Amino acid sequence: MADPLPSGLLEACVVVGPSNDQIKEVYESFLQENGSPLPLLDPEVLQVHAPPFVTKGSVNEPGVGNFSRTQRRFSFIKKKNDRHLALAGKAKEETTEDVSVPKDLDLVALPQLCFPGGLQVSQKQQEEQFHFLVFTDVFGNQSHGVVLQYYKPVQERMLKHNGHQRLSKLPRLYSAYGICIISKHPYYNALKDCLSSLLGRLKTCQNTDMEQEVKEFSAKLALVPTPPPGQLHVMFTLRPVTIVLPSKEDKNHPVIDLDLHLPFLCFGSRELLQIISSILTEQRMVFFSSDWAKLTLIAECFMLYIRPLRWQHPLVPTLSRQMLDFVMAPTPFLMGCHLSHYDEVAMETGDLILINIDEGKVVSSDYHDVDLPEAPQTAAECFKRRRKGLQLHYDLEVLHQGICRDVNELRMQRRRWQNKLNGDIQNITLELIVNMFRDVADHLNYEHRVFNTDEFLKTREPGDQPFYKTVLETHIFHSFLKDRLNGKFDTFTRMEQSTRTEDQKWKASLDFYRRRTVKEMALKNGRPDTGLNKRLGTSLPNLGEETNPSVLRHMSPTKIFPEMPLTTSAKPVKMFKLIDFPPPLSYPHVCHYFGDLVLQLNKAISATPPHDSNLLARYHYLRGLVNMLNSKRLDALSDFQNLYKTDMEIFPEELVRVLVDSLQTEEKAQAERRSELRWLISKVKNNDKSKRVESDGRVKKFELPKSPMQLEEFVKCTQESGIVRDVGAIQRLFEALAVGEPKQIDPEMFRVFYTFWKETEAEAQDLFLPDEVMERLDSRERVYKLSSSVNTSYGVGKIAVTQKRLFLVTTGRPGYVEITKFRDIEEVKISAAPFLLLRIPSLKIKNRLKKEIFEANLKSECELWNLMVKEMWAGRIMADNHKDPQYVQQALTNVLLMDAVVSCLQIQKPILAASKLAYYERLRHEAPMIIPKPTAETLKHKINPSQNMRSLQSVDVLLYTPGQLTFSADLDGNPKLWCALSCGKVVVFDAVSWSLLQNCIDLGDSQLNCMMGLDQEHLWIGSQDSVIYIINTRSMLCHKQLTEHRGEVTDFALEKLSHRPSHAQVYSCSADGTVIVWDVPSLRVKRRVHLTCDRLQSIQVHDTVWCCARDCVMELRQNGCLLRKISLLEDVKTKASAFSRITLHMERKQIWTSFTDSAELYIFESSDPTKPPKRVTLPDCCGVTCMIRVKDQVWIGCSSGVTGLSKVVGKIFVLDSESLAVEKELEAHEDCVRTLFSAEDRYVLSGSARLDGKIAIWRVD
After folding, report:
1. Residues annotated as region Disordered (predicted)?
2. For the chain, N or C: smaller number of CB within 10 Å?
């Protein structure tokens, strides 16, 4: 059975108060015992009003949605006879009817929560009061309530019934009543405003009219649609109050309609941090206040402070006096009760965190041995500094302004100030959470979903460890880890990435095995800001070093990033004002009201410019909700389907699923006749049937093995431990450690190896280098290995290894002596140095730039150091030859593994085992790589986009987007490299530092075929699944989808109609021969053409439209009419089976064509393609895979036959377009070249297939 469709703002409105019998009894007692105190009464449910208030079948039955005092199976039984007449003794036959009540509404506990301090009867009129409630069901779903308590005099007819004739002389009593509005959305301020407007009418209406007044009020709220996520708010009027429903920031973020600075007014910084720490460590907490209204609002503020982390335990911020035993619960909870119960709770229950809101104090109920949790010091200090900059008092903010006479304008002004302050507080508390948990990702293994708790704790400061030890065991933290492992791109991820330093970005892309950089050493040791720091700040390695700043740096000026302020300017907000409410209990009037709302939204959509797709999406979403409230399900589905073209980020998946399930038979038949609805319904059903099989969601802690491991188990265990990720290195490690037969690793052996590895990392963290040494090193260098003190030809000292060099730290007076950079080594060998009658093994290193040879008497360590230095030397040669710094990192991995193997193996010659790890040294001797001069001169850099993947991926598509000249706080102005991988994911690199900006934009499992940068904010990606995905380059999320193609999308072409970016149209083609022309601003289909061909695979626009299929090349007019067609020539068919690519060079009137399985190129004349083409044969080529024009050159990527010892499979040929001569033959990759892209005609980027999986950057002459 389908779930019920959600209603509007209102879930239910409940009236609570004393029964007439109770009032009668109290009044009679009061008259008999004049002056005696009035007792507290037990409140009861008097009325319940819940939607739907009118239905199509209830035109003549306006009583739908009424009340009773008995809950039975989520319905109420309402007595038809008049309640007051019954009390007067006029008995009538009773009939009953079932009236729907929300199934999640607990009407048993609600009266107590509406009167948590008890229901009072008073001799004087009392002021009305508000307080707030939160209801949580067993699944964790929340509803929110706002309660109005007001007093009204006891009914006169009751007194007359008691026989008193002179009513005016009798004493009067006033009884309290409560009205509770319940909503699925936390609109605390808005619902309070709604009740305030109702209060005025209740004071003036007769008692007999109160029920009808409340019912009409409730029915009006049920007509209010809630705003969609984003910057569109909904406004409506309940006279005399204008009420605003703010939207939530995004669909994963809650609505914020309360004053987030309230806790800042109640508590100092230390107490705020203690409360946040108590929540994060899942303590048992009780809030106290003498004002019931404070309890829920303060608790809700703290729930928002810890976002995106989520409290997952009981949350009952308001406990009635009958519910105090709840605080005896043994599990973590957050509860609240009146201050008068403070001593009782503190005395009866131990191990509680008691939070006194009125006095701003936080204490423990155990006065002796329990310490309050303290936040990590560095994060706490930052929070305290940020808090000082907040302006928390509105009156101080508006002292300079004049008085506003319009009450609603005054309220709007106050709301704008509050929204800005709320945004500042959210940023400050989010920064606190980010600072606490920024380093968590460094200890996660994404492939095996493992978090290394012990290693994370070792990196924490000693004073912070009690906090982290507790937090790591909580449900909150476990859920947070699952979100990180699932790649959730939430507010934490956005802030963490946007506040990374350049060093942190660089560090994220390489493995460093917990070694500190020289810069980090200086900061840890508290070095002053001296020449050392200046040296560290100016040390920028060039492309030959590991860090490799961009070869494209000069394309945009060097940008100095200012310190990022956390205060953000308020985003522009659009208000949608609802029309005046109709008579809410009349079905025809309600239908007419919804129709007028749709017309109003139609006008708003028509008035919105097409390029403002964000606002259009909100209007479509809101119109969908209105249509859904009006039971027009197909129109609602159509509106939600429009979100694919306007903003997919707010698409309500669950709501649409429920809507589809609720369709009637006739509606389903109508939907089948509408192609866009048929596609949407099919997608919803397919998602239900074949939702991706997610992992079990558990986050495992790393544990050492308990039984012998074969190779497969060893690979998994080593990856989980965080020692190394590379499968090839782990396999070589297995061969080194697996001594004897059978080939397996004993658990004790692994434990010894793991312990040594981690102890070495810990020692490296505490490594101290003198200032004289650090001044000579680059800021990003790290010391990976330090020898014992040895005698050398440069003096006595310790030999240190970094990723760049060997140097000697001299003893006595500490000093620095450089031995050699690895790239400068000419020879490394072991010799025997004479000592008395002995000959001691020594290591000799010859530097090609120095005459003298360095010699070190390393004794028993000599063979190990010989292996390590040679491996680093070989890795450095490979890195320089291939312009790929990862070779150095991999060589470092091998060196560290050698060191660990030699130290833990208890065999006679462990060096033989360690030699199995000398991969690059062995490769250098077995298959020396000779890089041809053209390749060496043209190749500038290589990067690995699969560095965080489980295995290498094919690079299917590349796109370079240029940078911005101006700095923007919300837009990174650096150029970017977008890379589509064969797993259906896109990774993004900063094209200045080559650091990884976005690890993974997941677009499904289908192959991605093409990419096009439309402007600075949008990126189009065509997929094998026939969908065009549009990426927002700021949020790096897919926010639009175009679904008109029915075959896999293979290529794009952009045609600019003027110099303005919005005046453009895009051509997309799919393999089934369909060409669609898109209007860019509106994303509407302008034209659709179907071509008869064999797999349409590329399209280009140059006055006319050129399409390349496997069997032909076609030229089309703009309207789609075929002009000319070039088919495979007869003599070509014997050599090649299909065209692969075309490239237009219209300045030379050339059409370059290539073939999938031939080395020949055919160049046709564009003016007369019937003429015999010019032919070029590429040497050592099996087929062309990609081809682009760069200036007057044509770059061609292909696959070639492997000859001899060469591992090169992918080649790039550079041809001159005039002479058709091959200017360069570049040995590019170890697998075929899959894609080429030109970066502003300065550089060419090439991507290779899976066996190589790398991106190469080439210089253009």
Report:
1. 525-549
2. N
Strand-pair category, 1255-1259 with 333-338: unpaired
Spatial contact of 1243 and 1259, defined as CB atoms under 8 Å apart: yes
pLDDT in tens, 1142-1176: 999 988 899 999 998 888 899 999 888 888 899 99
Mean pLDDT lowest for which of 486-490, 626-630, 702-706, 1074-1078?
486-490
CA distance 799 to 817: 10
In whole angstroms, give the CA distance from residue 1253 to residue 169: 96
| The two three-digit tokens of residue 685, written as one number | 């059903």
Burial track 790-829 (b if 16+ CB lie within 10 A, e otherwise): bbbbbeebbbbbbbbbbbbbbeeeeebebbbbbbbbeebe
Within 10 angstroms of residue 461's Cβ, the number of other Cβ atoms is: 10
Cα distance between the two ends of the chain: 68
Which residue matches tokens 């606190």?
A: 432
- CA 850/CA 855 separation, integer angstroms: 13
Residue 539 pLDDT > 70: no
Using 50, 70 and 90 to split pLDDT, how confident is the model at 1106? very high
Q: Evaluate whether 375 touches 273 at the Cβ level (below 8 Å).
A: yes
Pairing between β-strand 174-183 and β-strand 121-122 as defined by DSSP bridges: antiparallel
pLDDT at 953 over 80: yes
Q: How far apart (Å, rounded) are the C-alpha atoms in residues 427 and 978? A: 29
1210-1216 and 450-451: which strand pairing?
unpaired
Sorted by sequence, the CB contacts under 8 Å of residue 682 that are 6+ apart come out as: none
Contact between residue 1195 and residue 1244 where contact means Cβ atoms under 8 Å apart: yes
870, with CB counted inside 10 A (0-12, 13-18, 19+), is buried
Distance of CA 867 to the CA centre of its chain: 44
The count of other CB atoms within 10 Å of the CB of residue 395 is 6
Q: Determine how β-strand 1064-1070 pairs with β-strand 1255-1259.
A: unpaired
Structure tokens that stand for 788 in this block: 């014992």
Beta carbons of 602 and 622 less than 8 angstroms apart: no
The DSSP secondary-structure symbol of 686 reads H
Q: Are 1196 and 1178 in contact (CB under 8 A)?
A: yes
Residues in the chain: 1261
Alpha-carbon distances, residue 1142 vs 382, 1109, 1173 (angstroms):
58, 10, 14
The dihedral through the CA atoms of 1192, 1195, 1196, 1202 has a sign that is: positive
**Contact (CB, 8 A) for 804 and 797:** no
The residues, any chain, with a CB within 8 Å of residue 830's CB and separated by 6 or more, are 841, 842, 843, 844, 862, 863, 866
Question: In 1191-1229, where do the E strands start and end?
Answer: 1193-1199, 1210-1216, 1222-1229
Sign of the CA dihedral with 920 first, then 923, 928, and 929 last? negative
| Count of C-beta atoms within a 10 Å radius of residue 338 | 19
> Could you tell me the CA-to-CA distances from 300 to 285, 329, 491, 519, 991 in Å, in that order?
14, 21, 18, 42, 43
Instruction: Give the number of other CB atoms < 10 A from CB of residue 339.
Output: 17
From the list 277, 517, 285, 284, the residue with the least C-alpha distance to 377 is 277
| Distance (Å, whole) CA 805 – CA 784 | 11
Q: What is the model's pTM?
A: 0.84
Contacts of 1215 (CB under 8 A, 6+ apart): 1161, 1176, 1193, 1194, 1195, 1196, 1221, 1222, 1223
3-state class (DSSP) for residue 729: helix
Contact present, 170 and 159 (Cβ < 8 Å):
yes
Instruction: Show the tokens assigned to 618.
Output: 């909100």
Q: Are 1150 and 1166 in contact (CB under 8 A)?
A: yes
In DSSP terms, which residues pair with 236 in a beta bridge? 243
The pLDDT > 70 percentage for the chain reads 85
